[in-house]
Automatic annotation (TrEMBL):
CDD domains assigned to the protein according to its UniProt record, in alphabetical order: M1_APN (cd09600)
Domain Peptidase M1 alanyl aminopeptidase C-terminal: 552-874
Identification of the protein by name: Aminopeptidase N
Entry GO MF terms: alanyl aminopeptidase activity; metallopeptidase activity; zinc ion binding
InterPro entries: Aminopeptidase_N-like_N, Aminopeptidase_N-like_N_sf, PepN_Ig-like_sf, Peptidase_M1, Peptidase_M1_dom, Peptidase_M1_pepN, Peptidase_M1_pepN_C, Peptidase_M1_pepN_C_sf
Required cofactor names: Zn(2+)
Any single Pfam family the record assigns to this protein: DUF3458_C
Taxonomic placement: Bacteria, Pseudomonadati, Pseudomonadota, Betaproteobacteria, Burkholderiales
GO biological process: proteolysis
Stretches that traverse the bilayer: none
Entry keywords, A to Z: Aminopeptidase, Hydrolase, Metal-binding, Metalloprotease, Protease, Zinc
Residues annotated as domain Peptidase M1 alanyl aminopeptidase Ig-like fold: 444-548
Length: 874
């Protein structure tokens, strides 16, 4: 069944008050008594029966205003509880049973090793009690939890704890009241054995907020970093947006079994351990960075998501796009702005661009879905953030801030649509964004084709920009969109030209934000003394693909001199990409693959310059990912892509051998470990040098790697050495991997790194190894992190998942079908690795199609996975 935005109706009933009594009798069973105050919605359709959502809950009794209803007055089928002939305003009491331990879908209330946890977004609350489980129904919640005192000493829910006590049978209880009305997806409870640390934050208006962090016993030391991040994030939101925390108590709980990364439940954030626990010997720089950002992201949701929430799930980007944008701003402020931007764009290109070119392509605000859980996508999150960023660029930071103020002033406490944000920006800035709204409706990655002409006699330079967007499912043609194109012009010796457009009184400085609206736009720059090199789409001003016929000299100039750091990086990527694409064509045509000297020279200059900004150098020396190269091909041959990219790595490693080797020594980070931007940048660069050198497979480098692995005092250096050894078919490889597992087998998050390293291997035999690991005692399909580590990593392994004989696809089918009945949300994500079969060369295309057909034909397939295979095969 398809849910459509066009069918949205306001709810027929409202539920302003919810009182829940949750008795966690055993891991197998809980009794949930719900008291809902229900009112007919004056703005909704009139209906004589109340229809509540329900999923795997058995309803035992239903009462209205204290009187039990006879069985003929209510029916519960698998999806709804229907109560007939209800009055205009009444109290509804239901008593239901749920089964937390059997809840392997991990939506609703479920068990993990230390107790009971919950995840409700998007539609998990209906797995706890019958409810109008939609975000435009907002209620004040009072929750009483009962559980065994010894086994589950910590009892938590949203809001403030107002009472607690002991009860018979060695049990205890606690009552929580959340003063803020909220949608049901922000509901959360925890009953577990956990250690606690506490801290506090003083808001700028002088209130003291209690911060508590709960974690599996014995792991408190791994929570210190996240608590610091939380305080940074609270301060940052005050400084940047004037937004203060509105709670007396802010709790964070870590749990090892979790479908998502983290969840912003009001006052009770629940985090996947992977995104909150950090300690230098078990977490990499990347982990520290990601944890900091995720803690901030969830905190930022308190305003962008919780105070102003979504009307319905088509509006998911209202909260996610905006919150990812805020998270990106935070990361830019705390780390290197350029590196943060580069990483966000790489993310978009590896995740969102392929999605936009596949069968699941959808607009940032989708107009239809079967399962909303399939729409927690890169498009909604990453492209959604790009749309907010474009508005920020179009109106400028000051106006954008005013727009945010207005947005909160007008919509605090409401459930609204993506348009509320656009309208606020429009109103605060005076900018007409009517055409801009198309970004929320049209799917597909737009292309800009840029041509230029320099006229020496009139000293004018003309840029002609034509936009287009390829067809996507359900959208054969697109309208031109409104977007900012930030440009600069460089002289042939690398100076920035002041920009002045014909007909404009004042110049625009060195960088100009051009506004594109028409399909073709022409910009005439005057007083241009020399034929310039254009720097296009600075700071990645729009989520599009820019085509311009750069030659290698222009790209080298930009790489060396562009004042915009993002475009310096971009120039290096283009330089490499052009050669990689040529290489793939040569390889497929049976011609030798060769690379020019200028490539090695350009990369050599970046390396020679690396002292200035090692983190940037590491990004600039990283070749475009195989997925990004593949995306540029008419027809993907993943083996050819891999071989050509690997050949380029070896070419660079040979030519720059000495420079890589000395950089390896030069960029060591002596002293105690710290994940700050400076030292993590040095480690990134140094380990990148090591990886390049390892591609030559020399015994001396292998010893260097073995020594680094053995001597590492932090996980960043250990993992880099392990990954380098794992990529090489050498005698040191197996002992390194086995030794790593033996050392870390009791740290689940490190075991995940090991599984992932094995699954990402480019070496032959990996398919068999992954199958073997899927039966290893360290692996279980019941834990999402294990699945993501092994199966998820394998799914992006361009060589072995795409093995020419189809064995990788067969393994994916096997694992996905085993997982589907256990955890359909995670299974459908795994299956998405097969969805783009039409993009591949004929042999793989057929194998992938057959794999999808096998899944589609499987009896009892979940709705989640069914939607993905159905759309792929359509
Ligand atoms: N709202 C969460 C976040 O982005 C994500 C929840 C996703 N839910 C899920 N079942 N995967 O912060
Ligand atoms: Zn989010």
């Amino acid at each position: 069944t398809t849910v459509r935005l066009a069918d949205y109706r306001r709810p027929a009933f409202l539920i302003p008050e919810v009182v829940l009594d949750i008795d966690l009798q055993s891991e197998d069973e809980a009794r949930v008594a719900a008291t809902l105050s229900v009112q007919r919605n004056p703005d909704g359709a009139s209906s004589s029966s109340l229809v509540l959502d329900l999923d795997e809950v058995s309803v035992e009794s239903v009462a209205i205003d204290g009187k039990l209803l006879p069985p003929e007055r209510w029916q519960a089928d698998g999806r709804y509880l229907t109560v007939q002939d209800v009055p205009a305003s009444f109290r509804l009491d239901t008593v239901s049973r749920i089964h937390p331990r059997q809840n392997t879908k991990l939506m609703g209330i479920y068990t993990s090793s230390t107790g009971f946890f919950s995840l409700c977004e998007a539609e998990g609350f209906r797995r706890i009690t019958p409810f109008l489980d939609r975000p435009d129904v907002m209620a004040r919640y009072t929750v009483t939890l009962h559980a065994d005192r010894e086994r589950y000493p910590v009892l938590l829910a949203n809001g403030n704890c107002v009472a607690q006590g002991e009860e018979g049978g060695a049990r205890h209880w606690a009552r929580w009241v959340d003063p803020f009305p909220k949608p049901s997806y922000l509901f959360a409870v925890v009953a577990a054995r956990l250690d606690r640390s506490q801290d506090s934050f003083r808001t700028r208006s002088g209130r003291n907020v209690l911060l508590q962090f709960f974690v599996e016993p014995g792991k408190l030391d791994q929570g210190v970093f996240a608590l610091e991040s939380l305080k940074h994030a609270m301060k940052w939101d005050e400084d940047t947006y004037g937004l203060e925390v509105d709670l007396d108590e802010y709790n964070i709980v870590a749990v090892g079994d979790f479908n998502a990364g983290a969840m912003e439940n009001k006052g009770l954030n629940i985090f996947n351990t992977k995104l909150v626990l950090a300690r230098s010997d078990i977490s990499t720089d990347w982990d520290f960075n990601f944890i900091d950002r995720t803690v901030a992201h969830e905190y930022f949701h308190n305003w962008t998501g919780n105070r102003v929430t979504c009307r319905d799930w088509f509006q998911l980007a209202l909260k996610e796009g905006l919150t990812v944008f805020r998270e990106q701003q935070y990361a830019g402020d705390r780390y290197s702005r350029a590196v943060a931007r580069i990483q966000a764009v790489r993310n978009l290109r590896t995740g969102q661009f392929p999605e936009d070119a596949g069968p699941m392509a959808h607009p940032v605000r989708p107009s239809a879905y079967q399962q909303v859980s399939n729409f927690y996508t890169s498009t909604v999150y990453q492209k959604g953030a790009e749309l907010v960023r474009m508005m920020h660029t179009l109106v400028g930071p000051a106006k954008f801030r005013q727009a945010m103020d207005l947005y909160f002033r007008e919509h605090d406490g409401q459930a609204v649509t993506t348009d509320a944000l656009v309208a606020a920006v429009e109103e605060a800035s005076g900018e007409d964004l009517s055409q801009f709204r198309l970004w929320y409706e049209q799917s597909g990655t737009a292309r800009l084709s840029v041509r230029d002409q320099y006229d020496e006699t009139s000293q004018t330079y003309v840029l002609t920009v034509t936009q287009s967007c390829p067809p996507t499912p359900g959208q054969p043609t697109k309208k031109p969109m409104h977007m900012p194109l930030t440009v600069g012009l460089l002289t042939p010796d690398g100076r920035e030209l002041p920009l002045r457009l014909e007909g404009e009184k004042t110049g625009r400085g060195g960088s100009a934000v051009l506004s594109l609206r028409q399909e073709t736009e022409v910009f005439r720059f005057i007083d241009v003394p020399v034929p310039p090199v254009p720097s296009l789409g600075r700071n990645f001003s729009a989520p599009v693909i820019i085509g311009y016929p750069y030659d290698d000299q222009a790209l080298q100039l930009l790489l060396g001199y562009d004042s915009d750091a993002f475009n310096r990086w971009e120039a290096g990527q283009r330089l490499a990409m052009d050669l990689l694409l040529r290489g793939v064509a040569d390889r497929r045509a049976g011609r030798p693959v060769q690379f020019p000297d200028y490539l090695a020279e350009a990369f050599g200059r970046v390396l020679a310059d690396a002292q200035k900004d090692p983190a940037f150098a590491a990004e600039a020396l990283t070749l475009p990912a195989e997925i990004i190269i593949a995306e540029r091909l008419e027809e993907i041959d993943p083996q050819a892509v891999h071989e050509v990219r690997f050949a380029m790595r070896r070419f660079l490693a040979e030519r720059l051998h000495g420079a890589f080797r000395s950089a390896y020594d030069l960029f060591a980070t002596p002293g105690p470990y710290s994940p700050d931007a400076e030292s993590s940048g040095r480690r990134a660069l140094r380990n990148l040098c090591l990886a390049f050198l390892m591609d030559l497979g020399e015994a001396e480098t292998r010893s260097l790697c073995v020594a680094q692995l053995a001597g590492a005092t932090n996980m960043t250096d250990a993992m880099a050495a392990l990954a380098a050894l794992a990529s090489c078919d050498c005698p040191e490889r197996r002992p390194a991997l086995d030794g790593f597992y033996a050392k870390w087998k009791d740290e689940p998050l490190v075991v995940d790194k090991w599984l992932s390293t094995e699954a990402l291997s480019r070496l032959p035999g990996t398919v068999a190894r992954v199958r073997e690991l899927s039966r290893h005692p360290a692996f279980t399909l019941k834990n999402p992190n294990k699945v993501y580590a092994l199966v998820g990593s394998f799914g992006v392994n361009q060589v072995n998942f795409h093995a020419a004989d189809g064995s990788g696809y067969a393994l994916m089918v096997e694992l996905a079908l085993a997982l589907d009945p256990i955890n359909p949300q995670v299974a459908s994500r795994m299956v998405r690795n097969l969805e783009r079969y039409k993009r591949y060369e004929p042999a793989r295309r057929e194998l992938m199609r057959a794999a999808l057909q096998t899944i589609a034909a499987h009896p009892g397939l979940s709705r989640e996975t069914g939607e993905v295979v159905g759309k792929a095969l359509a």
